[in-house]
């Protein structure tokens, strides 16, 4: 995988975690998350998005459950800790500091 492709994957994973963190239920589905990625300029196939969601599940950042052709995804405490910069997950872009 090229450096650029790696950066896109790491950025996409962070966008997914931040999107889930912004939901009241900390949950969404892969179709809505695919749309969220597209709004950030990352236009990829459903299979690509599913692979990234599975990677996030593998590192414990989310739980993912198949429901028909989509994955239902929920942010875990570990994923939230990454978004809040309390921990750093391998393969996920580190969030920038938010200065208020």
Shape: globular
Classified in CATH, the superfamily is: Winged helix-like DNA-binding domain superfamily/Winged helix DNA-binding domain
Q: Counting H and I runs of at least 4 residues, what is the number of helices? A: 4
Estimate percent helicity. Answer: 40-55%
Number of domains: 1
The overall pLDDT average reads 96
- Alpha-beta classification: alpha+beta
**For the report, how would you describe the main beta sheet?**
3 strands, antiparallel
* Total beta-strand segments: 3
Strand order of the largest sheet: 1-3-2
- Distance linking N and C termini: 36 Å
Q: Approximately how much beta-strand content do the residues carry?
A: 15-25%
In the CATH scheme, what's the topology name? Arc Repressor Mutant, subunit A
Q: Could you spell the SSE succession in H and E letters? A: HEHHEEH
CATH class equals Mainly Alpha
How big is the Rg? 13 Å
Question: Which ranges are low-confidence, i.e. pLDDT below 50, for 5 or more consecutive residues?
Answer: none
- Can you name the CATH architecture? Orthogonal Bundle
Protein name: ArsR family transcriptional regulator
